[in-house]
Amino acid sequence: MGSFGIGASVRRKEDKRFLTGKGTYTDDINRPGQLLAYLLRSPHAHAEIVRIDTAQAKLATGVATVFTGADLQAPELKVGGLPCGWLVTSKDGSPMAEPPRPLLAQGKVRHVGDPIAVVVAETYAQAEAAADLIEVDYKELPAVVAMDKAIKAGEPLLFETAPNNLCFDWHLGDKAAVEAAFSRAHHVTRLELVNNRLVSNPMEPRAAIGEYDPISEDYTLYTTSQAPHVHRLLIGAMVLQLPEHKLRVVAPDVGGGFGTKGSIYNEQALVLWLAKKVGRPVKWTASRSEIFLTDNQARDHVTEAELALDKDGKFLAMRVATLANLGAYLGSFAPAIPTWCYGTLLAGNYATPAIYVGVKGVFTNTAPVDAYRGAGRPEACYVVERLVDRAAREMKIDPVELRRRNFIANDAFPYTTPVALTYDSGDYFKTLDMALKAADYTGFEQRRREAATRGKLRGLGIASYIEACAMAPSVMAGQLGARAGFYESAQVRVHPSGGITVFTGSHSHGQGHETTFAQLVADRLGLAFDQVEIVHGDTSKIPFGMGTYASRSLAVGGTALVKAMDKVVNKGKKIAAHMLEADEADIEFADGKFTVAGTDRATTFAQVAFSAYVPHNFPIETVEPGLEETAFYDPTNFTYPAGCYIAEVEIDRETGTVALVNFTGADDFGRIINPMIVEGQVHGALVQGIGQALYENAVYDRVSGQLQTGSFMDYCMPRADNFVPFTLETNTTLCAHNPLGAKGCGEAGTIGAPPAIMNAVLDALAPLGIIDLDMPATPERVFRAMAQHQQA
Ligand code: SMO
Fold first, then answer.
1. Are residues 226 and 277 in the same domain?
2. Is 373 in the pocket of ligand 1 (CB under 6 A)?
3. Residue range 607-654, pLDDT digits in tens
4. Is residue 180 assigned to a domain?
C-alpha cells in the first residue's frame, strides 16, 4: 500500500497537535463552575490518627467543603475502598492478604503522602491554604521500611490481616527437579541482586475531574488513564457501587502512562464522590511532589539467584528467591507484577530444563509498588542476564558462546518453558549475530586498549531479552489469578462516503495509535490513509476496552481491528453481490475493490459503502442497511518479543563516572506497521532502562520512612546528553497465533537495557577484581567500589 501502508514510516497524525501545543490533557480541561481539590497528606510513614479537626479549614476563604476518612465510612454512603484486580495464591494454597485501601486514611496512615483529608475550594491556592488549618494529632509508630526486617516475627505490622507484613508467599516451578539438578552440577553461580526502586515520572502528572448531573444521575470522569473502561469498572461499579453505565470515563491526551496510569487511584474516585456532594465539578491535579510520594512506584526486588551448569556450560537449573516490595497498599495490578509477570520470564531465551522461583510480597510503609514499563519482565531479565554473564566469567567461557550454547533452538518452537509459558516463535541466534555485528564485537578489545591509553576502563555488556506481551489470553489470565480477561474490542464504522471511523479499546498515551491503526485500516481496505480516523479513550463512544499496557495494542487491539474489518468486507461482499448481480460466493475483495471473480465487473469500497446507507432494492431478507461492525479478540497465547542489546561504557578512574559510549542491538517484534514509531518506542524505553541502570533510584530512609529522593534534585532522571545514538537492527519472526504476526515493541528497552549496561560496567571493572555492583551505577558507587579494591 505504498507510502501509507504496513511497513511505511508515516509521520504521526498526532504530531500536528502535539508539536503545536494543541494537545488536550486532563488539566487543560476546565468544566463550568468547577471547584479545585487539595489533599492533605500524612507527613509520617506510619502513625495513628488520634484527632483531626477541620473546623477552621471549613471557615476559610473560598472553601466549599472539607472531608476526612471518617466522613466516608458510613455504609449507606456506598463508598468502597480501591479494589485489586489480581488475586495471587500462596504456595500453601491460601489467598494473598488483601487489606482494604480506603479513599482517605481511616484511623491510621501507612506511608508519607497517604491522604487523610480533602479540601474543596474555589481555587487551588485557597484549598491548599485551608488545608494548613486542619489540625491533626498523630501518634507515630515505628516505620516498616526494609523488607528483610519487615518479615521478621515481632516487627510492627501495617495490617493485622497480613502477619509478618506478607501479602503472599508465592512460588512456581519444580523444586525437586531443581534441587536434583543442583546436586549434580559441575558449577554453580550465585548472585545477590537489588533491583532498584523507580518512580516512573511521566511528563504529565496524574489528574482527575469529576462531574455529576443530578437530573440524569450520570457521572463523568476526565482522567489520566491507560484503560478507561477498566477504570469505569473499578471506580464506577466497585468503589462508588454505581450501575457502571452511569459513569462515563474520558481519557483525553495522556502524557505518558508507563503502567503507572493503568492503575486506579484514590483521587479519581474522590472527585466523583465530591462532585455529587457539592453539586459542582471538582478537579484535582497532582503536583510533582505528589507524583513522587503517591504515584505507584516500581521494581524494588531483593533477590538471591543461582544457576547450575554442567562442565560444558550447559544450564541445568536455576533457583531464585525474591523479596518484592509492594509498598503500603495494593495497586490495581500489583500482586501480578512480581509473580506471574516475573517468575514466568526466568527462562529467558534459554533452554534451562528446571527452574524454581519463590517470591514473598512484602508490605512496607512506602508508596505502593505496581506496574511500570516492562512490569516484572525487566526484573526477570536482570536476574537471568546477570547470572549468565557471571557464569561465563567464572567458567572462563566467552559470554556470547555461553549464550549460544544455551539458547532455545530455532526448531524447538513452540517451546514450553519450565515456568508456565509456551514461546511460539523466535530466532535468538540470528538476533544475537545481528547485534554483535552492529556492535563490531570483534573490534572491542582494540577499543578497550585504546580507552586504557586515555585512562578509561572500557567494558562491553550483552543482554538477551525475552518478554511475554500482549497480555493476556483470558483463559490463561484466569489461571494466573487475574479477575478479568484481557481481550480487546474494535468497531469499524464505514460512512456513506467510504470514510472510516475506528473505535478502539486500545488507549493511546504516546504510542501513536491514531497513525498506526489508520495505516492498518488503509492497507487492509485499500483506502487512502487520511480517510481513516481513530477514536479512543471515551467509554461513551467505544463498545468496551481493556486498554493499553504490556505492549498489547497492536497484537490484541490491532487483531480485533482486523477481525472487525474482515466482518465489514464480508458484509460488503453481500452488498456488492447485489450491486453486481452476482453470487456472493463469487465476489472477491482486494485493493479497495469488490470484483466478480474471473471478470472485470467490479465496484469500489466507496460505492459499496454508499449503497449500504442509501440502498436501492436491497434484498432485505439477507442484507441489513448500514456498514458497521464490531469485533472482540481474545488472544490464544502471549506474544514473545525478544532481542539482544550490547552496551559499551567507559569509566573514569578519577571520578567513577560511567559514560555510555556505544549502544547497539537487534529486536524481534514480529510484524512492524510503522518502523519510525517503533524506533521511537524503543528509544524511549531504552532511555528508561538505561536510566534505571545508571541514574534513577527511589530511596527511603530506613528509620523514618521518608522518601529521600522526592524531587528532581535528588532523583536523577536521564537527559539527552547522557546518551549516544542507538544503532538498532530488526530481525523478524512472526507471531504464530495472531493474523498480523505482531509481537509488540513498547517495553523491550526497559527490559534488555539494564543488564546490558550493568554487564558492561562489571566488564570494565573486572580488571580491578570487582565482580559485583548494584544499580544504579552512580559515580559514588563506582568510585567506592574502585577505592575498596585498590586498598584490598
Ligand atoms: S507497565 Mo505497562 O502499562 O504493562
1. yes
2. yes
3. 999 999 997 777 778 788 999 999 999 999 999 999 999 999 999 999
4. no
If we measure between CA atoms, which residue out of 750, 723, 82 comes closest to residue 376?
750
Are 273 and 325 in a shared domain?
no
Residue numbers of the domain that contains 554: 2-20+487-633
CA of 228 to the centre of ligand 1 (A): 15
Domain membership of residue 161 (yes or no) is no
pLDDT tens by residue, 185-196 = 999 999 999 999
Is there a domain that residue 174 lies in? no
Pocket residue to mutate for ligand 1, from 198, 261, 549, 681, most atoms within 8 A of Cβ: 549
The CATH number of the domain where 500 resides is what?
3.30.365.10
Among 543, 558, 549, which Cα is nearest to 509's? 549
**In sequence order, what DSSP letters do the residues of 698-736 get, joined into one string?**
--B-TTT--BS--STTTS----GGG---EEEEE-----S
Domain boundary among 595, 617, 633: 633
DSSP 225-286: -S-HHHHIIIIIIIIS---GGGEEEE--B-S--TTTTTS--HHHHHHHHHHHHHTS-EEEE-
Query: What does the pLDDT average to over 659-671?
Result: 98
Atom of ligand 1 at shortest range from CA of 259: 3
- CB burial of 223-261 (b: ≥16 within 10 Å; e: otherwise) equals bbbbbbbbbbbbbbbbbbebebebbbbbbbbbbbbbbbb
- Can you tell me the ipTM of this complex? 0.96
Q: State whether the beta carbon of 254 lies less than 6 angstroms from ligand 1.
A: no
> Are 346 and 430 contained in the same domain?
yes
**Longest pairwise C-alpha distance within the chain:** 93
Contacts of residue 369, defined as CB under 8 A and 6 or more positions apart, other chains included, come to 197, 296, 297, 298, 299, 300, 324, 325, 326, 327, 331, 334, 337
Strand partners, 309: 187, 315
Q: How do residues 221-234 score in pLDDT, each as one tens digit?
A: 999 999 999 999 99
**b/e code 530-543 from CB counts within 10 Å (16+ = b):** ebbbbebbbbeebb
Name the nearest CA neighbour of 300 among 333, 337, 272, 355: 337
Are 531 and 572 in a shared domain? yes
User: Is the CB–ligand 1 distance for residue 341 below 6 Å?
Assistant: no
Which DSSP string corresponds to 360-390?
A: EEEE-SS--B---TTTTHHHHHHHHHHHHHH
1: pLDDT strictly greater than 60: no
Instruction: Please state the domain count of the chain.
Output: 3
- 655 lies in the same domain as 667: yes
CB-ligand 1 contact for 671 (6 Å cutoff) = no
Q: 3-state DSSP call for residue 305?
A: strand
How far is ligand 1, taken at its centre, from the CA of residue 470, in Å? 10
Burial environment of residue 660 by CB neighbours within 10 A (0 to 12, 13 to 18, 19 or more)? buried
Answer yes or no: do 572 and 430 share one domain.
Answer: no
Which of 556, 747, 750, 751 maximizes ligand 1 atoms within 8 Å of its Cβ, making it the mutation to test the pocket? 747
Ligand 1 close to Cβ of residue 486 (< 6 A)? no
Distance (Å, rounded) from C-alpha 212 to C-alpha 215?
9
625 and 685 within one domain: no
372 lines ligand 1 (CB under 6 A): yes
Return the ∠ at Cα 725 (arms to 724 and 729), rounded to 5°: 135
The finding on whether 378 has its CB within 6 A of some atom of ligand 1 is: no
Q: Quick check: CB of 550 below 6 Å from ligand 1?
A: yes
CATH value at residue 239 = 3.90.1170.50
361 lines ligand 1 (CB under 6 A): no
Please check whether residue 320 lies inside any domain of the structure: yes
8 A C-beta contact, residue 510 and residue 256:
yes
Residue 375 beta carbon below 6 angstroms from any ligand 1 atom: yes
Structure confidence at residue 224 (pLDDT):
98
Q: Are residues 373 and 443 in the same domain?
A: yes
